[in-house]
Every structure is written in C-alpha cells, then in structure tokens.
Amino acid sequence: xxxxxxxxxxxxxxxxxxxxxxxxxxxxxxxxxxxxxxxxxxxxxxxxxxxxxxxxxxxxxxxxxxxxxxxxxxxxxxxxxxxxxxxxxxxxxxxxxxxxxxxxxxxxxxxxxxxxxxxxxxxxxxxxxxxxxxxxxxxxxxxxxxxxxxxxxxxxxxxxxxxxxxxxxxxxxxxxxxxxxxxxxxxxxxxxxxxxxxxxxxxxxxxxxxxxxxxxxxxxxxxxxxxxxxxxxxxxxxxxxxxxxxxxxxxxxxxxxxxxxxxxxxxxxxxxxxxxxxxxxxxxxxxxxxxxxxxxxxxxxxxxxxxxxxxxxxxxxxxxxxxxxxxxxxxxxxxxxxxxxxxxxxxxxxxxxxxxxxxxxxxxxxxxxxxxxxxxxxxxxxxxxxxxxxxxxxxxxxxxxxxxxxxxxxxxxxxxxxxxxxxxxxxxxxxxxxxxxxxxxxxxxxxxxxxxxxxxxxxxxxxxxxxxxxxxxxxxxxxxxxxxxxxxxxxxxxxxxxxxxxxxxxxxxxxxxxxxxxxxxxxxxxxxxxxxxxxxxxxxxxxxxxxxxxxxxxxxxxxxxxxxxxxxxxxxxxxxxxxxxxxxxxxxxxxxxxxxxxxxxxxxxxxxxxxxxxxxxxxxxxxxxxxxxxxxxxxxxxxxxxxxxxxxxxxxxxxxxxxxxxxxxxxxxxxxxxxxxxxxxxxxxxxxxxxxxxxxxxxxxxxxxxxxxxxxxxxxxxxxxxxxxxxxxxxxxxxxxxxxxxxxxxxxxxxx
Length: 752
Known about the structure:
Elements: H1 2-11, E1 14-20, H2 23-35, E2 42-48, H3 51-65, E3 79-81, E4 121-124, H4 134-146, E5 154-160, H5 165-172, H6 178-194, E6 209-216, E7 221-228, E8 232-239, E9 245-254, E10 259-266, H7 270-279, E11 283-289, E12 295-301, H8 329-344, H9 362-381, H10 388-394, H11 424-446, H12 454-478, H13 496-507, E13 513-516, E14 519-523, E15 554-558, E16 561-564, H14 570-579, E17 589-592, E18 595-600, E19 603-606, H15 619-628, H16 636-642, E20 680-686, E21 711-716, H17 723-727, E22 733-736, E23 744-745, E24 749-751
Parallel strand pairs: 1-2, 2-3, 4-5, 20-23
Antiparallel strand pairs: 5-12, 6-7, 7-10, 8-9, 11-12, 13-16, 14-15, 16-24, 17-18, 18-19, 20-21, 21-22
Helix pairs in contact: 8-12, 9-10, 9-11, 9-12
C-alpha cells in the first residue's frame, strides 16, 4: 500500500473506502491492508454492495454533508451497509445478486465527503470496465460522473489497449492454462447454486464443457465461452420480470458444441478511450502506460461544462450521431456554462482594456453575445428589442485593416469614454433576459405553440455558432494578458512537469511526409439560405446549416502533392528563427526575464513545456519558414484532402476544450486518425467566394465584407473551438495574413 502512504504523506488524512459485493472478501482485504501498517492518516472502511448502491450512498452523503461539518472516522476499518440507499432492494434472493450484498448491518458512522473534506478520488483499477459493452461503459461512467464535483474530484481507471491479436489471445488462453482453470472453476460455483434444482448434484456441470477463447479484432473484444461436450438437460429456477427467483422450475436443453458466453472484454485504443470519457462527460487530465503501452491508467475529471467533441462513434452517442442541425437546448445550456467560465477569467480591472489593439475592450464582447441573440430573435418574430441602446453599441465588432487601421467594415459605434459604457451588472442582467427569451422559444416549440421552420432553425444555428466563435475570440485576446487573467474555473491546473514527461515520449515520433495522388475534393456544402422558404423543406431540425461562405458545394481538382504529417512545432520554429537571425517573436510567445516562454490560459510556461506543441503565428511568418524548408503552405483544397487522414474533426482531437492549451500533434496510426495538436491551419488561399455564392440576407456582411484579397482561409478548429464547428468540414474561417493572435498554425506542403 505504498501509494496510500505516499498520499497520506503529501495530502494529510485520507479516507479509503473499498467496495465489494462479498463481505467476507471485503473484510479479508481490509485486514491485509491493516497488517501492512499504513500511516495513521489513512483511514480504512468498506462498502458492501453493488456499484449502484455505492453511488446512491455516496450521493446521499454528499447531499447531507455539503452544509455541515464532517465527522471523523472513529475506527480504522468499518463496513458500511448501503441497503438503506438501495432504491429497489430485492424481496427475494436472485441469481445475479449474491445473498451477502443487500441488507447488511454495520457501522454507518463513517462521515466523509463534505466540500471541507477535500477531493474524492474514485479508483477503478484492473480493466473490468471492459466487461461492459462500449455503450454500457458510457452509462456506467456517467453514473460515476454524477457523484463527482467539477474541478475537485477525479477518477483513476484502467483500460486494456487495443493490442495485437496474438497478444490478447495469449493473455486469455495462456500456455499454462491459468485462465482456463479460472474460467472453468465458475462451473463448480454454478453447480452448487443449481444443485437444489437438480437432485442436489453439486457436480452437475463438471466435465461437460471446455473453455473457448476468441478475439474479435474488428470489435476490439475478447470473448470467453463454455463449449458443451455433450447433449444434456438441466433444471433452473424461473426468474420473473423483476429478476426475482420464483417457485417454478424449467428445463434447459444444452446441445453438444453449443457455446455459452461467459464474458466479453473490450479493448480501447487511445482514441476510443477518449471518446468513451468524453461521451460520459469526463475530461482526461493524464495517462500512464506500461513500457509496452499495452495497458493504460487514465486520470479523468468532471468538467463544469461538456461541449461534445465532433463525430463521436455510434456506440458513444446512442441518441445523437451528429452535432449538426438545430442546436439542442442542452447545447445552449452547456455553451452558456462555457461562456460564463470564460467571463470569470476576466479580472474586473480588465473590463475596459484592449488586450489586442485591433479589437474592442473586453466588456464589448460581454454585451455583443446577448445583443446579437436579442437582435435576431426580435427580427425573427417582429418583437421589440430588450434594450435599444445595447443594439446600437453591441451589434457588430471590428476587424480593421492591418495596413491602415482607419479602414474598417461597417460596425457599431461604441462609447469613447469608460463612464459612457453600461455597467457590468447591466450587461449581465441583459444577458440573462436574452437567455430567457431563447429558452421560451424552445419551450414553445416543444409545446407545439411554435412551428420550427428552416428560417427559425437557421437563426438558432447562427446565434449559437456566433457565441462559439466569439468565445474563442475572447480567449485569444485574453491569452495576451495571460499573467493577469484567472485560470478557467472548475478545471484542474495542468501538472506541466508530469505532462512534459508524457509529451517528451511522444515527441520522439519523427515527422513524416505524406503523399497524395491527384484527385477531386469537395469544398463547402449545399445550404442555400434562399431555400429556407421552400415548401418542400421538411427537415428543419436535422438539416446541416452553415454560413453563406460555405454554400454551395464545389468540386475542386487537386494535383498530387506531398505534405508534412505534423504541423510546424514551437521547437523547430525557434531553431529556424535563431538560425536565420530573425528576431521575430510570435504573439503566442513572450519574453520574461530575457527568456522565451509560451503563453497559455494558465499563465506563461517554460518553452520546454510546449516545445512540441504546434506553433501559432501569422501566415506571413509561417510562409517564410515553409519556403526555407523547400516547401510552401498548403492550399485550402489540399487541407481538405489531408483532413481525411489527419484532422481535428474527431473525438480524439484536441478540440472542444479537451484541453485549454495545445498538445503535441499526432500522426495517423492503425488505431486512430491523427490530429494537429489543437490549432486552426492557415491555407495559402485568399478568402474567396465559392462558385454559386449567395450573400446572406439574414446576416448581410458576414462574409461579403472580407472578400478583399487581404484575408486568407484557415481550416479546421482549435482547442477552443466547440465540436459542432470542428465536425463540419465545410466550415471556413479567415484572417488577415499578418494577424498573429488567432490560435492558428500551419504545416509545410510540397509540389510533386
């Protein structure tokens, strides 16, 4: 129990609770732990019951202890009965539940779990979660998540990796027959349980089966079976719909060679594991592996909001397989939590400051999001605005020319003096009122009072994605003042030293050059705004909506090309700058006491921490690096080709706040699609209209103001981009070539 001793030494008193269905086994293991003479600060207790009973007990303790002082554990070890918290205790014994689990008596004076007791850490070691099918594993983890407090509690869980088939087969069918003996021993237990129904024959099943081990590599699932050696019949008790044993008995015929499933054991690639956790509303903070990377221990937390990642696998999202269509009410609720989290990062003395000269003060963005929503709700229904004055000052932001800041598109006229701006309280009250307006729309749709047509659906799509985009805008502004802002609340502070050790191993992966043949590729999608009023449009809720610059779908021919599998990273970029005598400092870097550091939303970090992250800089500067390397920046169409192999459009990518910082990029592998570490990618194309372009009449000027030859297309998504946008391959973003503040990097392409 060295780990528990270490925990005690570092963190003070520790309350350790073991959960088991078998009371005798629980007491035996607690006795063994006591004999190992744990430090006095480690208090041992046992919970005898099922997982569900355990979490019900835990939830009750959390609720009862939240507003009261937490009593101490009186004894070193105690068994807590959880039958009082079982929502449906069985009236009779049933086969799946050992008779020792419900209704035990014991010392229930074990007080834990108030916020003043410190964080909880759930341990689910081994890899038994693999015995759930993947969808059930999501449900189980959601149950654990519901007992966790955001930014406070953690779950440490083991998962088997997707290892090669011979390795898996050997683990379950070893040459010494250990696993076979273990599995066949289950027949002895089954014989004793069924003996009363079969003339008290306690050898009922002995010698009637052999063990069969199968690994389904496509499903990543090991399957264990009993294979019958002969035809025979047994009697079993009748179990009713409540899983209760009745007085009835029925015969079961078992045929020779029939397979009886014992268990399944699912294996997880890294991408599948991340999808599992994200679908359950959990966030990965760290991972440990064995030296052969066959087994992983994952440390996860419950984030304060859960913006789903793009393209979750079918098993991870049983009710929703796409983030497109009309945003669900839950999407809005989670995005508001995200927006509130971002607002909390702003110290009060920064509200009237401009972290970036080319943008408005921070308070403008606090008002811009609700004003935009209010304006479009009012236009849609012909209703009065919540606040006319706020429309005048908050309707539209600025993107002035970097060559001449006096040249700018049409925008709102904002106050010149600080005392002319609304107060923060006024802006937040306005925000709450617009949220209420939005919720009322969804309520009326649900009640049938309001018909959801394409135009209303587009307004909901547009206002939702507008908030996504400006959340990211505010973050790339705030990161310029990273030493002054608050870190995101409800998320654990990264352990940079530990993460560096993990990233250093991944950094050993060498860059490679990928080659693609000449081919056609599709840019954009078909989403004509003018078609919103067509009578034949029946799928308003599920249609894939976009912005006017994404419409219509264009087929573009791409000549064969080569491209680096990994984007340009900080370390190599720094070496290039030093080698060429270039004193340029990207906006994502900062000088501190004469040393180059990297900006993060947690403050400055040493350069070595993020040296393998993708560099974030302007197209103007990254283009010079590409040329010096003998290449160029890829075109928009080439990036679309690449996105089928490497992209930020999948659950394993660093998007949708999987992290609040970049991570090292990953090349594609046999078990997963690669990603670029969590940045947008510059293309070499100026932002132009797709053939057949129709300017939006719902949002005039959204894109039409920027077809000026000065803006360039960026593709993909960043770590601060919600999954809805990251998932939609037609999405197009754009920035001016010298603009260095956006979370965007680049890779090097080569003509063939």
